[in-house]
Design a protein that fits this description.
heterodimer; A: 293 residues; mainly alpha; 2 domains; 71% helix; B: 425 residues; alpha/beta; Rossmann fold; six-stranded parallel β-sheet; four-stranded antiparallel β-sheet
């Protein structure tokens, strides 16, 4: 039965939850919150079962790019459910669910399903650490994008004396948004630098050197350099830690992360689709069903 | 049964009249005791707020009820006034009008600030005091409890009380709460000792503000105000230093020119490292140079005009809800009156039915004496036939009575029934 759960199941649930979030801008409703939470939770349960089934059948953690993107979407969906439980009045889903859906879409249409090369011993641990760091860094950057974007909207609105929105975009307080944005950028910084270092170490173990010509290596090193610069900027220039500057910094970080992920998707050596045109036939039945849908 | 109200309100009476007729809580207790002595058969509730003084009276027997003149005279005499000085200000409502008025007042629809919620607690206090002093009775219990229920329904089903309309409440609840997640770790800087500033502080204290610094040209006044709010006074020359440390500023000085210029703020901004600052400039003329707002990205400067606009917009929102609220009040008043009228007919119906029982029993006794051969079953059947006959005879008048009570108190019909069937009280 678990094998029959497809990507379409949870992607459709997240999409309905997003449409319900959008409807907040148009009209008020007493039951919308519960229905929205219901759809998001149903999607999350289906998503969990889908990943659980894959882990159970393949016995590998972050086995392919496909798994990596779906797991990133799953963590972000979990964060969404947690936030929406505490901020029911705020349309957090408007900012976070598109990223969840985008990750699911990338997994479905662009990410390679070819398993990463088998590694064991130290190599295996470093590879798992690399994947986990990158995943958590990406999720933190996505949360930073959400809170940073909301901060800028809320700051603009308060600056322009739009005091009490009658309906729709009721955002969290500036203080909460700033705190969340700061935490998100610090977390994503630490994780992405960790991802870069573990990636460089992995490259060195595999090839005896860090291949700087590899698009993945240079793009993630650019990202790590960006994070180091942002961290130094934060450390030595106090105004960067508060207000709009931290929001802009977070948005820029998210764009950098997105560009790095795009570079990785295009790289055939990193498990991109070009590397293995026959891969569809190697996927479990359930995934193929999802793909067909 | 008579329910009456005599009083004055902000609609027709000037504040000079209202303040002469107002009762302090202690005076209300005294007045209730005096009224109980003067009108022992009358239930009394006295509502006295800054916008209205209303005396509600109720009696089972309308002939024993105090008149408009009696109540007005009592109020004038109590306050040592001449009746003719205040009589024209004291309006009267009776019966359904009095019920409708009380429901409207309790729901905040008759208040100076439409939908303000304090009036409901004042109505509750007036009723509770009357209960404590034993001056309330069955009729006032039911009408005041219904009024409180109606007010709660209006609050629940409309948005008339939700939008805030005073500048300090909008400043704190609608605005400051969009900036700050919590207030117990925020520093509030109060500049000047204006009334609006103090009122805003009251709202800020309600949301948890604990760290207050007061800066005033007159240090003594700053010390007094700071002591009132467990805050810290600071001399005027520390103004810019305190601005650098504050999270929220409430400014209400009487200065005739800005006390913080753009150059001053530039220095403050450097010291704050661009940490966002929320300023409520409630002074007229303004205390902060408006150029500060255009210059600083992380400064949110609100003048009294900005807040006034929000209040006005909220007031309009409340007015939009008024028809819905009035409909609820009218529905509840009509339901209350129908129930009251139905209850008024109860004793007459009871007496009417009792009046039929005696002749029925006499006739049955006479019949059973004449027909001793009847079995118990036959006797029971005959008894049931008599009951059915009585019910059929009483059905048309009782039906008419019920119909009449739907449209108001059926006094005429009740009198007619009393006379026709010789029903005695």
């Amino acid at each position: 039965m678990l094998g029959k759960i497809t990507i379409t199941c949870f992607a459709a649930s997240y999409l309905v939850a997003l449409l319900l979030e959008l409807s907040r801008l148009l009209f008020r409703s007493g039951i919308r919150g519960a229905v929205m939470l219901g759809f998001a939770a149903a999607g999350f349960v289906a998503h969990t079962m889908f990943l659980g089934y894959r882990w159970f059948t393949e016995r590998e953690w972050l086995n392919s790019e496909f798994d990596w993107y779906l797991l990133a979407a799953w963590v972000l969906a979990a964060v969404y459910l947690y936030l929406v439980a505490y901020h029911r009045q705020n349309p957090i889903g408007l900012f976070i669910l598109p990223v969840v859906l985008m990750l699911v879409l990338v997994a479905q249409f662009w990410a390679s399903r070819t398993p990463f090369p088998k590694t064991s011993g130290l190599n295996g641990y470093v590879a798992a650490a690399h994947g986990t760091f990158q995943l958590l860094g990406t999720v933190a950057a996505a949360i930073g994008f959400m809170s940073g974007a909301m901060y800028l909207i809320q700051a603009w609105r308060l600056k322009h004396k739009k005091i009490a929105p009658k309906q729709g975009l009721r955002l969290p307080t500036l203080e909460w948004l700033q705190r969340t944005t700061s935490k998100a950028i610090s977390t994503s910084g630490v994780m992405l630098i960790g991802g870069f270092l573990s990636g460089a170490l992995l490259s060195r173990i595999k090839y005896g050197e860090v291949r700087w010509s590899d698009p993945v290596v240079w793009s993630s090193s650019v990202l790590a350099a960006w994070m180091v610069t942002a961290g130094a900027f934060n450390l030595f220039y106090k105004p960067a830690r508060q207000g709009r500057k931290v929001a802009y910094l977070t948005l820029a970080t998210f764009v950098m992360v997105a560009l790095t992920l795009a570079a990785m998707l295009m790289d055939p050596h990193h498990g991109g689709k070009q590397a293995n045109p026959d891969e569809e036939s190697e996927q479990p039945q359930a995934v193929q069903a999802g793909g067909a849908a | 049964m008579k329910l009456q109200l005599v009083g004055c309100s902000h609609h027709a009476s000037a504040v000079s009249v209202r303040e002469r007729l107002a009762f302090t809580p202690q005076q209300v207790e005294e007045a209730l005791a005096q009224l109980r002595v003067r009108f022992p058969q009358t239930e009394v509730v006295l509502l006295s707020t800054c916008n209205r003084v209303e005396l509600y009276t109720a009696t089972e027997d309308a002939t024993l009820a105090p008149s408009h003149h009696d109540v007005a005279e009592f109020m004038a005499t109590y306050h040592g006034l001449q009746l003719f000085d205040v009589f024209d200000d004291l309006f009267e409502r009776t019966g359904e009008d009095a019920v409708l008025h009380l429901f409207t007042v309790a729901a905040g629809l008759d208040s100076m600030v439409l939908g303000e919620p304090q009036i409901l607690s004042q109505v509750k206090q007036a009723y509770d005091l009357a209960c404590e002093r034993n001056s309330a009775g069955p009729l006032t219990h039911s009408v005041f409890q219904a009024a409180i229920r109606t007010a709660k329904r209006v609050t629940r089903e409309t948005e008339i009380s939700r939008k805030r309309v005073s500048i300090p409440s909008v400043a704190v609840a609608d605005l400051a709460c969009q900036f700050f997640e919590r207030f117990d770790d925020k520093r509030v800087l109060v500049i000047g000792a204006g009334e609006m500033g103090q009122e805003t502080l009251r709202y800020l204290a309600d949301v948890g503000v604990r760290d207050v610094v007061v800066v005033n040209r007159n240090l003594e006044r700053a010390q007094r105000l700071a002591a009132e709010w467990n805050g810290r006074p600071a001399p005027w020359d520390r103004l810019l230093d305190e601005l650098a440390e504050a999270d929220l500023v409430v400014s209400t000085t009487g200065a005739d020119r800005p006390i913080v210029t753009l150059d001053d703020y530039r220095r403050v901004e450097d010291a704050r490292y661009q940490r966002p600052l929320f300023i409520l400039d409630l002074a007229i003329p303004r205390d902060f140079d408006p150029a500060i707002e255009e210059h600083g990205l992380n400064v949110y400067l609100y003048s009294i005009d900005d807040l006034q606009q929000a209040c006005e917009s909220n007031r309009k929102e409340r007015e939009k809800e008024l028809p819905k609220a009035i409909k609820i009040v009218e529905e509840e008043a009509a339901a209350f009156m129908a129930d009251l009228n139905r209850r008024a007919t109860g004793p007459i119906i009871h007496r009417l039915k009792q009046g039929m029982q005696q002749p029925k029993e006499d006739e049955l006794r006479r019949l059973f004496n004449k027909l001793p051969e009847l079995t118990d079953r036959e006797r029971a059947e005959i008894e049931r036939s008599f009951d059915r006959l009585i019910n059929k005879l009483l059905h048309p008048p009782l039906e008419s009575l019920r119909d009449e009570s739907q449209n108001g108190s059926p006094h005429a019909l009740l009198d007619a029934l009393k006379r026709l069937f010789q029903l005695k009280d």
